[in-house]
């Protein structure tokens, strides 16, 4: 995953309201959750919710699908996993190994 895409995702998740929304969507699972249910569950005004959902969509963290008159938000777990992998991929690569004989 490219640095700019990871930075964008982390920026959007760095806002407390967007992080709360995203956590709610993640809890809903792969089928997503109706926008109205998110609004009810989190007590967020519709216009505010729409703004935050748009930001999460622009970072590729969620998608939306319409079923009749109901709009669902679906978390993009692959994108989330890619962000986490980006952060973990080089974990401790510069850490030097401690020789057990010199550790005493």
Automatic annotation (TrEMBL):
- PROSITE patterns for the chain: HTH_ARSR_2
Q: Which InterPro entries match?
A: ArsR-like_HTH, HTH_ArsR_DNA-bd_dom, Metal_resp_trans_reg, WH-like_DNA-bd_sf, WH_DNA-bd_sf
Q: Which sequence ranges form a coiled-coil region, renumbered to this chain?
A: none
Q: Does the keyword Transcription regulation apply?
A: yes
- Spell out the Gene3D superfamilies in the cross-references: Winged helix-like DNA-binding domain superfamily/Winged helix DNA-binding domain
The protein's UniProt keywords, in alphabetical order, are: DNA-binding, Transcription, Transcription regulation
Domain (HTH arsR-type): residue spans on this chain: 1-95
Signal peptide limits: none
Q: Which GO molecular function annotations are given, in alphabetical order? A: DNA binding; DNA-binding transcription factor activity
Please report a single Pfam family linked to this protein. Answer: HTH_20
Q: What is this protein called?
A: DNA-binding transcriptional regulator, ArsR family
- Organism of origin is Enterovibrio norvegicus DSM 15893
């Amino acid at each position: 995953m490219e640095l700019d895409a990871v930075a964008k995702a982390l920026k959007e998740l760095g806002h407390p309201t967007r992080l709360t929304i995203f956590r709610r969507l993640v809890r809903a699972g792969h089928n997503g959750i109706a926008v109205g249910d998110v609004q009810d569950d989190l007590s967020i005004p519709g216009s505010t919710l729409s703004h935050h959902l748009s930001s999460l969509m622009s970072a590729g963290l969620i998608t939306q699908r319409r079923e009749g008159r109901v709009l669902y938000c679906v978390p993009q777990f692959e994108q989330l996993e890619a962000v986490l992998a980006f952060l973990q991929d080089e974990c401790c690569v510069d850490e030097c190994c401690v020789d057990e004989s010199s550790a005493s």
